[in-house]
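Researcher: Quick sanity check before group meeting.
Model: Go ahead. Protein one:
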Amino acid sequence: MTQPSHQQIATYLTDYAISELVRYVIEDTGCTLEQAMEMVYNSSLMPALQDEENELYIQSPAYLYEMMNAATT
């Protein structure tokens, strides 16, 4: 069995963080899935999260959610 590459791990963790961010938005705002996805994908956090060099994907989704909220206030 081969070990996953750094890229595969980063992609998995980024995808997981995004799904959790969407879930948090829905829980906090009561908006629809589509609205929550739009909020997350259009947030100022998204480019930084998708940039592997930042390694934000290793942070907890709760921490990332706080960062996302802090950027919008």
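Researcher: Fine. The other one?
Model: Protein two, sequence then structure:
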Amino acid sequence: MQTGNLSSKNSAQLSLATALALVAGFIFGLVAHSVGSSWLLKFAQSLEPVGTAFVNLLKMVIVPLVASSLFIGVAQVGDLRRLGRMGAFTLAFLVLTTVVAVILGMSMTSLMIAVAAPQIAMEGGSAAAVVPDLPGSVEFLLGLIPSNPFQAAVDGALLPLMVFTLLFAAAAGTLPSVQKNQLLGLGESVTAVLIKLVHWILWLAPLGVFALAAPVAARVGWMMVLNFVVFVVSVLLGLLLFISLVYVPAAVMVGRIEARRFVQACLKPQVIACATVSSIATIPAMLEATEELKIPTSTASFVIPFSAAINRAGSALFQGSALVFLAFLYEIPISTGGYVAAVLATMMVSFTVAGVPSASIMTMAPALGTVGVPLDGLGILLGIDRVPDMARTATNVTGHITTAIITDRVVAGDQRHAGNEKAHPEG
């Protein structure tokens, strides 16, 4: 998903340049590894500081960007009671499907790694990372409440910081309009500045990705390339399974819409989503699809924009997959408590993914931090993100349409039925 200063064309060009830089870095590293030339290997290793600088630039904006995006997303909703039954049901459906998506992404990648991925060891892995100790549910829940939210930000403990931000934003949403709008204006200005900064950093992505890929390929050879192929395939299969096992059955069994009709209606929005990698830009096509499916405008006009603003189940699946993949590369064992924390963090972040290219990668830090996975791997993921980004945006769009169908059938349909009963009482 993208907004701001990078147009769809510029974003596509930048993604292509970054992907080519990744390929070039891998080829250079593979040649150095195969030839065994000492000066080529030394040159590849000398690029590491450049890659580290790029990763540090990304890390620099993560904490404030996650906090400001979460604040705006929650504060704009205001008093949740005002959303009514339709909004509450929509939100519940989005939470449920997002949790399922994260778990499916983790499971699919774990399975693909076990079956097809060669084991390699990335530097900065298990020996360097500090794996958080999550001994039990009580301690975990207590750890979500920061005694000092500013210290949590300094320490990079993003999950407690997100809890504080969520509560702060919820309280801000209940303030009188003048005070609420002042805080929202400040939050939107801060977010706009951070997004501008992210855009600047992402223009350095081709150089940074090349500098990250070349040393790794020089050390481990073809195994790294094979691992990334396994990862991309696992993400694409996971997204396809998610649509097939969650959205299509929901539309058929709950929404009572024929599967073929549902798939045909979703096709145009999915194509536009792949081309623009933006759910927001696909809203007109989604509204047209809901009209074809006979969803009342009164329902679709609320659910589609609301879902497009916060529903990122496809992104959540990708983040769950990426977390397991990076943990595998860095040989970080993930405990049961770590998985629970990562699912919670991914779910919270997925509802407020910032409007920047490859935002799903940029906002993975909270989940990675819960299990001690270094953030260095995020830089390389940028180089292979165009295809997964297209696929997860198409999945998100399918979810928006499904949410409108389910909400209309379960909530709006019941309300219309109740209204008809009042207008035409029996007897």
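Researcher: One line on it for the slide.
Model: The radius of gyration is 22 Å.
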